[in-house]
Amino acid sequence: MNPTKERAGIVPHLVMGVMAIYFLLPFWWLLVAATKDNDGLFLSAPLWFSDFHLVDNLRTVFSQENGIYLVWLRNSALYAVVSGVGATAVSALAGYAFAKLRFPGRTKLFALLLGLIMVPATALVLPTYLLMSKAGLVDSIWAVILPSLLNPFGVYLLRVYTHESVPDEMLEAARIDGAGELRVFTSVALPAMRPALVTVLLFSMVASWNNFFLPLVMLSDDHLFPLTVGLRTWYMSATLGNGGEALFNVIVTGALVAIVPLIAAFLLLQRYWRGGLTIGAVK
Amino acid sequence: MTEVQTKPAAAPAAAGPPARRSPVKNAREAATGWLFVLPFVVLLVAFLLLPMAYAFKLSLYRSTLIEGEHFALFENYTQAFKDPLVREGVLRVIVFGLIQTPVMIGLALLAALLIDHATSRFARVFRLAAFVPYAVPVVIGTLMWGFLYSKDTGPLGSVLHIDFLSSSWVLASLGNVVTWQWAGYNMIVLYAALQGLPREVYESARIDGAGPAQIAWRIKTPMISSAIVLATLFTILGTLQFFTEPLILQPLNPGSITQHYTPNVYAFNQAFSFQQYNYSAAISFLLGAVVFVGSYLFLFATRKRSAL
């Protein structure tokens, strides 16, 4: 390699190697386990293949309970896309306004927002459920989507980013050219905000795809469940053994299918992830 | 970057706006501003302020078969303070946080310093490997570890002969799940901060005879202390709200993971297993208040380092 550049020695690489095994071992186990039938899962060596049943397992995952897994998969995707896009749109409007528009109460509202970022989301799930049940909104897709549209941290990130990266002169020039405020926002500010928008979109989509507590509380119709809640019901009935067959291999394969799209998207978009965390970290 | 740019821009701006800004324009800008923040404000009221207020109101009432719902002031709170199950759960998350947080942040810092130091292809692969668990939903990550811990299906239980979910091991086992899931995320946050440091500083230290380990520990680490503080803060916030992991592993060993294992699990069970909404609201509100005050105190205590 390049002799002028100092190369890290063997010890740092050894440490990284050990850590990498730790982080990847569960994935290797999951991949191997998804190829086994229920008996093989319990009887064969956990970290190596025995009989190959991946195709059977996949077939069972998608046919179990009239293909409810596919419904869960679709629900997860729907909640993630609608919540992600919605939360990003709301945060973009508010972040832009906080950064670039002067309106009475702006500083106070923003100070309030900074305080509210610290309010733990899980402590709000139960009261939100009770309020929503009074409004008759519980057990509908809106019970999961509407609360996910609120993203105070996203507003904060977009305000910081917009404040630094969208020059006032550009907005002023567009106004002088006769553009209305909405037009200034959509055609001048939004394109300049794009890197931060992608970040907020990715993070709110993942948060929504991974969400568990909110849908667990809000939904009782299993046809509205996202994957996280659905897989838990399978897992519960398998471990507690109430009635149904204990199909652990189906749960394992279901878990594999659930994380594959996310990891694929994540590897493709890793550039944006890192960029996004930098916006948050540097400040 | 701002030093150079603001000066020339500031001069015309100082002369410009007061003359250009007519009252009509200001009013229009104010109206637009409010219109733009309106959706956010509506959501903020509906899903944050209102639930908070409602939880507080609920927590002040009690509901009994004889008297129905009646105002009870802080009775629920005194009950919560006296409740040994609440105390046990709070103590558990504190112990958990005191051990798990330093371990995970330490691991994340070590990993971040390593990938910052090593520029090999392996370092890039490692960076990805460590971050991937973050992309896994907590429910599924916990399910995976549940299988790995199992004496029947897991390599760990059968090789090490440890019952990972027995009452003496369960807290450490849960800590491992959390560490596995979030260490890589924190590593990237810290790595991003390291990337922002000026490289020349290391050069002069190297000339003074400092080795890579000394540079990492004595120069890089102090310089990213604000990022470390923030990562610690978010970890503590998460720890206090500990919920999904114990709930998922509970059926595997209900004896060691109880219905009141953490304050959040307890509040959840009070509401949905026992319909004790008022008591549950008091616990939730108390927990929320503790997290809120705690994070402010933490930020205040470390404000010099975090520069917030």
Automatic annotation (TrEMBL), chain A:
Q: Which residues belong to any copy of the ABC transmembrane type-1 domain?
A: 73-269
User: One Pfam family from the UniProt entry?
Assistant: BPD_transp_1
Q: How does it sit in the membrane?
A: Multi-pass membrane protein
Q: Which InterPro entries match?
A: MetI-like, MetI-like_sf
| Keyword vocabulary terms for this entry | Cell membrane, Membrane, Transmembrane, Transmembrane helix, Transport
Annotated membrane-spanning segments are: 12-31, 77-98, 110-129, 141-161, 182-209, 246-269
Localization:
Cell membrane
Family per similarity comment:
Belongs to the binding-protein-dependent transport system permease family.
Per its record, how is this protein called by name?
Answer: Carbohydrate ABC transporter permease
Source organism per UniProt: Actinoplanes oblitus
Automatic annotation (TrEMBL), chain B:
Q: Which domain of life is it from?
A: Bacteria
Q: What is this protein called?
A: Sugar ABC transporter permease
- Where is this protein found? Cell membrane
Where is each ABC transmembrane type-1 domain found?
90-298
Q: Which residues cross the membrane?
A: 30-56, 90-113, 125-149, 169-194, 223-243, 279-301
Compositional bias (Low complexity) at which positions? Answer: 8-19
Enumerate the PROSITE patterns for this protein. ABC_TM1
Q: How does it sit in the membrane?
A: Multi-pass membrane protein
Matches recorded under InterPro entries: MetI-like, MetI-like_sf, UgpAE/MalFG_permease
Assigned protein family: Belongs to the binding-protein-dependent transport system permease family.
User: Has UniProt tagged this entry with the keyword Heme?
Assistant: no
Give the residue ranges for region: Disordered. Answer: 1-22
Keywords, A to Z?
Cell membrane, Membrane, Transmembrane, Transmembrane helix, Transport
